[in-house]
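Changelog note: in this version the structure field was regenerated for every chain. One regenerated record is shown below for reference.
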Amino acid sequence: MFGNKATAVASPADLKGKTIAVTKGSIEDQELSKVAPPEATIQRHDDNAAALAAYVGGKAQLLAGGISVITGLKPRQGLAALVAFLVPTTLQMHRFWEIDDPHQRMLEMTQFSKNLALIGAALALMQLDEPWPASIERAPREEEMFVRIGGQDLRALPA
């Protein structure tokens, strides 16, 4: 999860009184539902764009990690949140070395390996310079909206 610097979150208890935008049914939604205190408000949106719009529009104080990677909005923070989630979850949920049944062991080892690949990909993506070429940047609310392609601002279509 991420938000502005004033919205510090070090543990689930810090979510008390906060509004968090997530994509409905996503991993972030499922995990947040398990740990968020009752005083936290989870806004569930139909897609990533709607969740991002809620955050950018000031209707949510926090945004779940995966959305930031997809949109390129503070991607390093989103990637760090994903790594922070995946490492302990992988070690806790996919303990294939403790399973006796060969079939179940293989399934858990597959899930463990997938999560390791996701962690590696997230760490690799953290090395990219920001802003990413296709990043959605947070626009000031009082200014006009425009398209940015290849580092150039397009305020109107060329004639």
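Spot check on this record: The chain has five helices and six strands. Residues 139-146 have pLDDT under 50 and may be disordered.
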